[in-house]
Specification:
The complex is a heterodimer. By secondary structure, chain A is an all-alpha fold. Chain A has one domain: MetI-like fold (Orthogonal Bundle). Chain A is 71% helix and 0% strand. Chain A is built from ten helices and no strands. Chain B is an alpha/beta fold. Chain B has two domains: 255 residues, 3-Layer(aba) Sandwich (Rossmann fold), CATH 3.40.50.300; 187 residues, P-loop containing nucleotide triphosphate hydrolases (Rossmann fold), CATH 3.40.50. Chain B is built from 21 helices and 20 strands. A six-stranded mixed β-sheet of chain B has the order 6-7-8-3-9-10, with helices on both faces. A six-stranded mixed β-sheet of chain B has the order 16-17-18-13-19-20, with helices on both faces. In chain B, β7, α8 and β8 form a beta-alpha-beta unit. Chain B is globular.
Chain lengths: 286, 544
């Protein structure tokens, strides 16, 4: 009877699946942040202290990731670099999120001339290949961590402007926005007190996905020599310096920073994907 | 061919999910003969739609038949094989959905859709099927079917789509038609055309029609028999007219009482005495609102066209008209959400039409003119609680903070009969009626003098609508509010308003005292609207 009755219904799918991947990437992000915050206490050696007698030693019990050409502990340098790279990526993303969401929200709500000017400006930025633009900016501004932050933030800005503008614009005519106007809220309060908080979850997803990209961008600029300068420990520089010894079989100089970079980017991207799935109303169960 | 077409006995359906099982139908039995219209009525959650879907073997995912039998033309549908069901469906059973636009394939021309159905179920060549499709469209009330055949669904109005859908549904001469709220998305004039067509086809082709509806007036007028459902059970069944005229079951009686219709006053709906109206002295005869030659266009379309009217203090004026007549635009103009293109809006002595809508939040009149939205759900910020929604105007327009604010919010909740513990909830955890109450409380928060109500009870069940209307009437009388009441439902406006404006295509075509206008409408358009009002509960109405 039950089986027969089943034929009258269409399949009953349980859409909620265990989200182990998101949980794992979340744990990875937490671990990265912990390493960054606690870097000076967990690094076994001074990341800048050289030991010429012990240069280019392969991984061992004393030096888990080996030593580099001047005998610095690669593992300690990786830990110190985690702090710098995360700080650069986070500052850049926060900067473009803050500026982009404000600009996008105002344009999306008001429209008009400002919207058109900002919109075309964004188009111009997007007309350049992003990484090339970042290199040009970093080169023009001179090296250093702040330069990378600025270059990465500027290159990311268009995405936040466009996303916020679209999300705010789609909601600007909603009943609850009109209700806020009736309640005596001026345009400023409507945009920043009512609309923007409703768009925040979407922006948070974008920011999380963007963090991975920003880390890659920062490392890439340093790799090319327009970012952070040696001997500062930074993943991109470590890869660049280690590459010279790769043909000599000193694989650990490139492999470990490369691995750290890969894991960090992967963790942020998977977390962003997971958050997006969770926020997507189509994935929701009532 | 037996007379008995559909026989449902002791049917039980439950929605099963991992966490729980919800009973949707609990021992429903009914039968339907050829050439008969059976209306299944009830409020949301009664199981009407589930019953209709079960009868055609199209239950929603997750729904399980737990017991009972569905016999269609002598054949048991519950145990029928899928393949057999597929053949039966479309050929012998057919369904007309609530939203015709969503049910028609948007990238197929209407004619092609009908040809597809014909060829899938009958052995017809393309040319033959095309001829048959044309004849069907003609029968569905399109005297010139060729342009309709070639049209895509989005090029047709809602009423035309629904008639095309009916043509498709009857294409294979099904024995049984299930129509689930077939006119819910249509305005009154299209509603009548669609229902007349369905009723004629049922008689002409000796089909059976299971009409699922929440509208007692529709059921009374078109159905032979009526089954009243409540939480998965049929509480009363019988001949449509006499059942509604003399309901035996208390629930049916409550439904009939709560349905606004001719001759029913708001005091009858309430069931409890309402405060008496405030006496209107000569001093307050000066208008609170006077609108003259007001116009608004959106691109090429004229939404409001040289509209003028006066609203006296303490008066309630109704604005009626079909969808697209410009009612809502008028409401938004008067409540200063959008700017007019031309014309004046005088609020007492202030020319508020000349003040930009974008800066109106800072004007003292903002506090005094408020709006209750049509869509209670869409007008609540998804992130805000009921408390936040009601507190917002109090903070901004009255500068209340802290304990004074909380006390006033609680007072307002009490005034609109919203339980205080619901104040912490967000919109998605409130029922439709509760959301409407939050919307009313928010509009009343700043103690406005003029309240604009834009279809405040649309989408609510009749019993909830009755309680909201009663509440509004009580507040109106207690607070001495002046109201502009926008509605497509003439029966509601008739109860709530002193005067009526009839709008059509952006213009006011007729204006008058409520009773005069309903007794002797002058314009043909108004006559049509008035004629389409549900009247039941006494005798078979003449809808002329």
């Amino acid at each position: 009877m039950r089986a027969a009755a089943n034929r009258l219904t269409r399949g009953t799918g349980d859409r909620r699946r265990p989200d182990a991947l998101t949980a794992l990437s979340g744990a990875g992000v937490i671990a990265l942040v912990a390493v960054a915050v606690l870097a000076p206490w967990i690094a076994p050696y001074d990341p800048l202290a050289s030991d010429a007698a012990n240069a280019l030693a392969p991984p061992s019990a004393a030096h888990w990731a080996g030593t580099d050409q001047v005998g610095r502990d690669v593992f300690s340098r990786l830990i110190a670099a985690t702090r710098l790279d995360l700080a650069i990526a986070l500052s850049a993303v926060v900067a473009s999120l803050a500026l982009g969401s404000v600009l996008g929200a105002v344009c999306g709500y008001r429209g008009g001339l400002l919207d058109r000017i900002v919109g075309r400006g964004v188009d111009v930025l997007l007309a350049f290949p992003l990484f090339i633009l970042a290199i040009a900016l970093a080169a023009a501004l001179g090296g250093g961590a702040v330069t990378i932050v600025v270059a990465t933030a500027v290159v990311n800005l268009p995405f936040y402007v466009r996303l916020t503008r679209a999300e705010v614009n789609a909601r600007a005519g909603a009943g609850w926005v009109e209700a806020a106007r009736l309640a005596g809220n001026g345009p400023g309060r409507v945009v920043f007190g009512v609309l923007l908080p409703n768009v925040m979850p979407v922006l948070a997803v974008q920011a999380s996905l963007n963090l991975g990209w920003a880390i890659l961008n920062a490392a890439g600029l340093s790799f090319l020599g327009v970012g952070v300068e040696p001997p500062t420990p930074e993943w991109g520089i470590m890869v660049a310096e280690g590459a010279r010894y790769l043909t000599a079989g000193k694989w650990w100089l490139v492999a470990f920073p490369g691995l750290a970079l890969t894991l960090a980017v992967l963790a942020f991207n998977l977390l962003g994907d997971g958050l997006r799935d969770r926020l997507d109303p189509r994935g929701h169960r009532g | 061919m037996a007379e008995r077409l559909l026989e449902i006995s002791d049917l039980g359906v439950a929605f099963e999910s991992a966490e729980r099982s919800v009973v949707a139908l609990d021992g429903v039995s009914l039968s339907l003969d050829r050439g008969e219209i059976l209306a299944v009525v009830g409020e949301s959650g009664a199981g009407k739609t589930t019953l209709g879907a079960a009868a055609i073997g199209l239950l929603a995912p997750g729904a399980q038949i737990t017991r009972g039998k569905i016999r269609f033309d002598g054949e048991d549908l519950v145990t029928a094989y899928d393949a057999r069901l597929e053949a039966v469906r479309g050929a012998a059973l057919s369904m007309i959905a609530q939203n015709p636009r969503a049910a028609l394939n948007p990238v197929r021309r209407v004619g092609e859709g009908i040809v597809d159905v014909l060829r899938a179920h009958r052995d017809l060549g393309r040319a033959e099927a095309q001829v048959a499709a044309r004849a069907l469209l003609k029968r569905a009330g399109f005297p010139d079917p060729v342009p309709i055949e070639r049209a895509y669904p989005h090029e047709l109005s809602g009423g035309m789509c629904q008639r095309a859908m009916i043509a498709m549904a009857v294409a294979c001469e099904p024995a049984l038609l299930i129509a689930d709220e077939p006119t819910a998305a249509l305005d009154t004039a299209s509603e009548r055309a669609v229902m007349d067509l369905l009723a004629d086809l049922v008689r002409e082709r000796r089909m059976g029609l299971l009409l699922v509806t929440h509208d007692l007036g529709l059921a009374a007028h078109y159905a032979d028999r009526i089954a009243v459902m409540r939480v998965g059970r049929i509480v009363e069944e019988g001949p449509a007219v006499s059942t509604l005229a003399r309901p035996r079951d208390p629930y049916t009686r409550a439904l009939v009482t709560a349905t606004p219709r001719a001759g029913v006053r708001i005091d009858d709906l309430a069931g409890v005495p309402l405060p008496s109206r405030r006496e209107q002295g000569p001093a307050i005869a000066s208008p609170i609102l006077s609108v003259s030659r007001l116009s608004k266009r959106f691109g090429q379309a004229v939404a409001v066209d040289e509209v003028g009217f006066v609203l006296a203090r303490g008066e309630s004026v109704g604005v009626v008209g079909e969808s697209g007549s410009g009612k809502s635009t008028l409401a938004r103009l008067v409540s200063r959400l959008i700017d007019p293109d031309a014309g004046r809006i005088m609020f007492e002595d202030a020319d508020i039409g000349a003040m930009a809508a974008a800066r109106f939040h800072a004007v003292p009149e903002r506090r005094r003119i408020q709006l209750v939205f049509q869509d209670a759900t869409g007008s609540l910020n998804p992130r805000a609680t009921a408390f936040d929604a009601i507190a917002d105007p109090l903070r901004r327009l009255q500068g209340l903070r802290g304990e004074a604010l909380a006390a006033r919010v609680r007072e307002l909740a009490l005034q609109v009969q919203l339980a205080p513990e619901l104040l912490d909830r967000r919109a998605h955890r409130l029922s439709g009626g509760q959301r409407t109450r939050v919307g009313i409380a928010r509009a009343l928060a700043s103690r406005p003098d003029l309240l604009v109500l834009d279809e405040p009870t649309t989408g609510l069940d009749v019993s909830v609508q009755a309680s909201i209307l009663t509440l509004l009437e009580r507040l109106k009388r207690e607070l001495g509010l002046s109201c502009l009441f926008i509605s497509h439902d003439l029966a509601v406006v008739r109860m709530m308003c002193d005067r009526i404006l009839v709008m059509r295509e952006g213009r006011i075509v007729e204006e008058g005292d409520t009773e005069c206008l309903f007794r002797a409408p002058r314009e043909a358009y108004t006559q049509r609207l008035v004629a389409a009002m549900p009247e039941f509960g006494t005798e078979r109405p003449d809808w002329g």
